[in-house]
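re: ur question from earlier - yeah i can do the single chain one, its not a big deal. heres the input i used so u can compare w yours
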Amino acid sequence: MSKIQTAECVSSGHPDKVADYISDSVLDFIKSKNPEARAGIETMVTTNTVIIAGETSEVVSDEDLKQIVKKALETIGYTREQVPSFCSELVRVENYLNFQSSEIAQAVVVGGAGDQGIMFGYSTSETRSKLPLCQEIAANLMRLHDIFRKRRREFLPDAKSQVTIEYDLLNQPSIKNITLALSHKPDVTKSELDAYAYYLVRNALSNYSAKFISTFSEIKLTVNGTGSFTQCGPETDVGLTGRKIVIDQTFAAPVGGGAFSGKDLTKVDRLGAYFCRLVANSLVNIGACDEVTVGVSFTIGKTKPDSISVQMVNNHTQFTEQEVANILSATLSFAPKDMLYLGHFDKMIFKEVTNYGHYFNVEANPSEFSNSKIQSVLENVLM
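and the output i got, formated as tokens:
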């Protein structure tokens, strides 16, 4: 029986991603002041207003926040010339940050988890990024659009992509539908919009199988289903940190304990998901399976996980899934401090992994895609 998979992605200018990027920019600022600092930053964006709340162990002044937000919006492309109703020059910033709870801080100081929760990491051999093909293409579309639109000022920052792929009985993929929502200035014509969309799709598919290009005319491409998209961003849609968690995680994996952006890596809902993804990639890289989801659960304050789970597609080892999970528990330390340093996540610039899914940017976080130490350990015991 054939199967169909669909994934979506949003641009860096989508309201929810604007909120994510601001939260991670604030987190980067806090960590630059004190590498041991802790924070959980939440952002809401609406018409010409940014509201920042949450908890941190460091003082962040109103002026600091204003400058962080201004730089973030300029980087994304929300300027007065582009979107006057939500722009870096005029935006109002409200600061509702508080100090982190002493009870949570106490749990972290002793090396325990900063929260309870269940986290998952997924990997597949289907693509270089170890993401499902439809998700990788959807992310490529938005990454390229963010590059192109900054050269072509007729397009505005807010955008979405959606890609549907059908697999035949031999598991060969074929793109069936691509849907794009591309915000633009009022004087952009339908023909200009369509021409740009085709240009964007061709560039996004250029590094894939020639089959995709040869069947390009068969792909159903929909651009701006309502016809026009001239009102965009926080002017028309409130953005919130963490609301794009399915895109951030990958649609193929369960959504775990919480969102990622704005949280330092004592928060195991971010750290645990990153580490599980790293372990999942290592299992795929050594040939243990074609596809895998690794899960872990924690109790706040504890240094060891409550459980570790493994679900494999095409298991190439001599072990059952439960036995593989037991081996992971015995050979790798899932203690928060060990996950942090074994994965080299302590070197991460958080705002660099905010967009297009947190597992897409190989350059920003290369260790997430390949960790020779973990792979060597697992290869010795599993293969």
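Residues 3-11+132-234 form a domain with the GMP Synthetase; Chain A, domain 3 fold (CATH 3.30.300.10). not sure if urs matches, ping me
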